[in-house]
Specification:
The protein is about 70% helix and about 0% strand. It is mainly α. The protein has one domain. Strand 1 and strand 2 form a beta hairpin. The protein starts with a helix and ends with a helix.
Length: about 400
């Protein structure tokens, strides 16, 4: 018997248990967007060591601006929101209870894993400090852990707007997303245009909701069958042209992620460049749907997609912890190539690539235990009220501490 036989049997078993109506292409797109998050953070995030052995955040993009196009590929949150909108509208139509009950269920599924990771880190951070880990390392770790969690809050917000998105999609189709694009363009014009010096810095926050609701609204319209191939080609071509114009003519930063020390950023909150990329990605995703569904009809390709989707929030919440699980002990040994050395040489890039499998293995190990936060408790076996309260207080305390470092 081949060593791969058990894996083939497991893949066949997953394939047989998959409902016929399951949209494999949408699940595949979600898995792709999910895996891009840790890959991007692991590749485009690094550390430096101070004199006391403390870790500080750094990025190879500070030294290698030519790496910016890599962020165009790794920034796939547009796809995630697109697929989220598509899946939400289907779930919304299948609901058996009230809209409030449907929304509560989705909020609980999003919130439980976040509560888990923040509560665990609320206990781990002081324990690490007491064990002699430098304060700078603890602070850096807290910042990295809470960094991806902004997404959950934004995603919860746009999910709450699903009923309104459905109405807009039924009336205007894919064009329902156009005003959101216009709103972000207007804010960008104010903060980067001739009046930029007189505009308050908080104005950029106005881009958060329309910026991420844009792709979600496209996904809702797609789920309502209001975007076909013609609309998809328009999104792909229009998004690509707008993206190029913003880079070449209007001087937007090329990186889709924040670069330490940079005066402008396309992320947090999203700029118009993020929406242009999301439009192009959304068009491409819709056009490639059938081809992707055909590929995922193969059990060997479908099984990993199922595993990733079942662990979606675990991957999102714990991937930075996996990297820190290697970097914190590595810092005790001093400068370790690709791990705790400054990300400012080509050698660092090659060494960091070699660390990616290590981070992935650590994430799998962590996920074996962290998955319990994502899995719904058995009926009648929910956590006691006291335990939920304590976890909530720990999570809130850690979140306040981490956000205070930003």
């Amino acid at each position: 018997m081949s060593a791969l036989t058990p894996l083939r049997e497991a893949a066949d078993r997953i394939d047989r248990r998959t409902p016929v109506h399951r949209d494999r292409a949408v699940d595949g797109l979600r898995a792709l967007a999910l895996l891009a998050v840790p890959t991007g953070h692991w590749l485009l995030g690094g550390f430096t060591l101070d004199a006391e052995g403390g870790l500080h955040n750094a990025s190879p993009l500070s030294a290698f601006a030519a790496l910016a196009p890599a962020s165009w590929v790794l920034q796939m949150l547009g796809i995630f929101f697109l697929v989220g909108g598509y899946a939400s509208v289907l779930s919304y139509h299948r609901r058996t209870g009230s809209t409030g009950a449907w929304l509560k269920g989705r909020m609980v599924r999003l919130g439980r894993p976040v509560l888990g990771v923040t509560a665990v880190w609320a206990l781990a951070a002081p324990a690490l400090y007491a064990a002699g880990v430098p304060e700078a390392t603890v602070r850096t770790g807290a910042t990295l852990v809470v960094q991806p969690l902004w997404f959950v809050g934004v995603y919860a917000g746009v999910t709450a707007l699903t009923p309104y998105c459905v109405r807009a999609a039924r009336r205007f189709g894919g064009w329902a997303a156009a005003p959101l694009l216009g709103a972000v363009a207007a804010v960008d014009l104010l903060r980067y245009g001739p009046l930029a010096d007189s505009v308050p810095s908080w104005l950029s926050v106005l881009n958060i909701l329309p910026g991420w609701l844009f792709a979600y609204q496209l996904g809702v319209a797609w789920g309502e069958r209001r975007i076909g191939r013609r609309g998809a080609w328009l999104l792909l071509a229009g998004g690509a042209l707008l993206f190029a114009a913003l880079l070449v003519v209007f001087g937007y930063p090329a990186s889709m992620v924040g670069v330490p020390g940079a005066g402008r950023t396309n992320a947090h909150p999203p700029s118009l460049l993020v929406l242009a990329l999301a439009a192009a990605q959304s068009g491409a995703a819709i056009l490639l749907r059938e081809r992707l569904a055909g590929l995922l009809a193969r059990p060997a390709l479908w099984a990993p997609v199922v595993v990733v989707n079942l662990s979606a929030m675990t991957i999102l919440c714990w991937h930075q912890t996996a990297m820190l699980a290697a970097a914190v002990p590595g810092a005790l040994a001093g400068e370790v190539a690709g791990l705790t050395t400054a990300p400012d040489t080509l050698g660092w890039i090659a060494a960091r690539a070699a660390w990616l499998p290590v981070f992935a293995v650590l994430l799998v190990g962590i996920a074996r235990y962290a998955r319990r936060f994502e899995a719904a408790p058995a009926r009648g076996r929910g956590a006691p009220a006291v335990r939920r309260t304590v976890a909530g207080l720990l999570a809130a305390g850690f979140a306040a501490f981490a956000l205070g470092l930003a």
